[in-house]
Amino acid sequence: MDESHDSTIGEDYTDRLRNRRGHAWKRLLPDPYRRNIRRLNLGRTLDVGCGIGRCLAFVDGNGVGVDHNPTSVAVCRERGLEAYVPEDFQLSDRGLFDSLLLSHVLEHMDEDAGVSLISSYLRSLRPSGKIVVITPQAAGQRSDPTHVRLIGEHEVSRLFGRLGVELESARSFPFPRPVGRFFTYNETVVTGVLRGEASGGD
């Protein structure tokens, strides 16, 4: 995640993620969100801004996470997941990935920071690799004071255009978009494909 947003670094933010993961309904009914990730057919996945590893756990060992919060990375590792802070990931040789996943990341930064973040990992993506962006809708946006802007299909499409990524699909999950006005956990899921050489946001 963008390192300019200090509010997502440290133990306090990690504890907030733990508390959300601990909500009773999420423990009892994780399957819709797990199935959502699995049906995207991500292949080997680089989870950028992986937090404490919710989505990373859903790829069943076929992924690597990276997050700028060392406390969250430590929680991932405690859970048996492979995760790194950006500096350590850049120094490692993890090979190429079939997909980049950014779940609940881009709403924490402005568009330029989002372009910079994604472009810094595009070299880890195979040719014609997939990029998946998942963002909260209106109620979810309001639920976290570290969110700086509401991002929907239009905003992601514009960002993709700057990166040389072709928009493939966009949908609301798990309910239609109007539900996102009051259901905190409704999400926008946007998928793109990297065509040719990445533009790097220029």
TrEMBL record:
CDD domains: AdoMet_MTases. This is Unannotated protein. InterPro entries: Methyltransf_11, SAM-dependent_MTases_sf. It holds the Pfam family Methyltransf_11. Residues 46-133 form the Methyltransferase type domain. One of its GO terms (molecular function) is S-adenosylmethionine-dependent methyltransferase activity.
